[in-house]
Amino acid sequence: MTSKMGIVVDPEYESILAKSKGQSGDNITDILAIRAWSNALIDAASKAVPYPEGMQESVHATTSLDGTRLQITRFLPQAVRKEEVEEQAQVEEAQVEAGDAESNGVAGIKGKGKGQGKGVPKRAVIFVFGGGMISGTVEVSRGFIAAVAQNSHTQVFAPQYRIAPEHPYHAGVDDVYATILWLQANALAFDVDPARIIIMGQSAGGGVAAGVALMARDKGLSPPLAGQCLRYPMLDDRTWYPESDPRNKYWTWSVAANDMGWTYYLGGLKKEDRNEETVPCYAVPARATDLRGLPPTQIGVGSLDLFKDENLDYAARLVKADVGVEFHLYPGMPHGFDGPHGFTGVPAMRFTNEMWEDEARWIMKL
């Protein structure tokens, strides 16, 4: 690690910066052009992740809270499928034994009926993709989502939630909450334990996920969420630093880009017009005044991420609210360090595996 004026910079990241020539999307002003630029970066990063062998994808559909059709992609890792096959074999064996017992006048064990799942109900993750509230899709994030499923030995359900500016808050939050309701209602068919559903979000998706967790608490979701896993989440529209801040040159997601994302997400509401009355906490989780009753939480962020301070603050407030929190700070790392983040041809950095392993380990505890 190197330190400049008290700023810790990972040597790998410092080397990348030296080669990048300041590549950034801040000079793009058209929203659709920004979306195309961002999606191309996410897609390149996602495709750089080796796609797990034996991963199965299937597409399902439901309706959002306002009746809009919603598409959900299921990522089923080979490890979970293997468990299901083994469990189904045990069920069939028990059914045979039950049949033999009944033929001898002994009450047997009843197997699962038609339309039921194949094995023992298991945990599941609902993954909310990132993209600054204005970009991102399940398709361009496939590699990231499949990696979560593979690393945690957990099936993952990823909704194609609506994004701004075409669909400002509360469309995306409604879509993700509707996904939880759909999965709980169909838990048996997917061998999911409805009490072991974890919501996970990356960057802007982390902010949406945190807002959904607040909504689930307030609506009395039953059973409640088992946990929320937030990967460098975008939580606070008030985050701002002057251009003179020495960390500015290390940020891969800038103050300007962040405010633009929030402005579009909040329906065009300018910074000076935002307050507790005009901005609900389901839209901006950091504005929530009461964090009690939220599910166990895992947060990971780099020390050179624009969101570091807001993530630290949110974690500390969760702890004060007696919520179980696991927090990881990755020294010298910028936002999105598990992808090329605008530096063409640069792979994910070495801390990627550490962060993903931390997340998987935490998920597998639930």
Distance between the termini: 34 Å
User: What shape does the CA trace take?
Assistant: globular
Percent of sequence in beta strands: 15-25%
The class by helix and strand makeup works out as alpha/beta
Largest sheet: 8 strands, mixed
- Number of DSSP helices? 9
Number of strands: 10
Radius of gyration: 22 Å
Mean pLDDT over the full residue set: 90
Which parts are unreliable, with pLDDT below 50 for 5 consecutive residues or more? 106-115, 341-345
Give the SSE string.
Answer: EEHHEEHEHEHEHEHEHEH
Task: Give the strand order of the largest sheet, numbering strands 1, 2, ... along the chain.
Answer: 3-4-6-5-7-8-9-10
Helix content: 25-40%
Structure in words:
It contains nine helices and ten strands. The longest helix has 26 residues, at 78-103. The chain has helices at residues 11-20, 31-47, 78-103, 142-152, 171-185, 204-219, 255-265, 308-320, 351-364; strands at 2-4, 7-9, 56-63, 69-76, 122-128, 155-159, 192-202, 227-231, 297-304, 325-334. Helix 4 packs across helix 9 and helix 5 packs across helix 6. The protein is globular, with a radius of gyration of 22 Å. Strand 7 (192-202), helix 6 and strand 8 form a beta-alpha-beta unit. The two termini are 34 Å apart. The strands form two sheets. The chain has an eight-stranded mixed sheet with strand order 3-4-6-5-7-8-9-10, sandwiched between helices. The protein has a two-stranded antiparallel ribbon with strand order 1-2. The chain has 366 residues and is of the alpha/beta class.
What are the main properties of this structure?
9 helices, alpha/beta, 8-stranded mixed beta sheet, single chain, two-stranded antiparallel ribbon, 366 residues
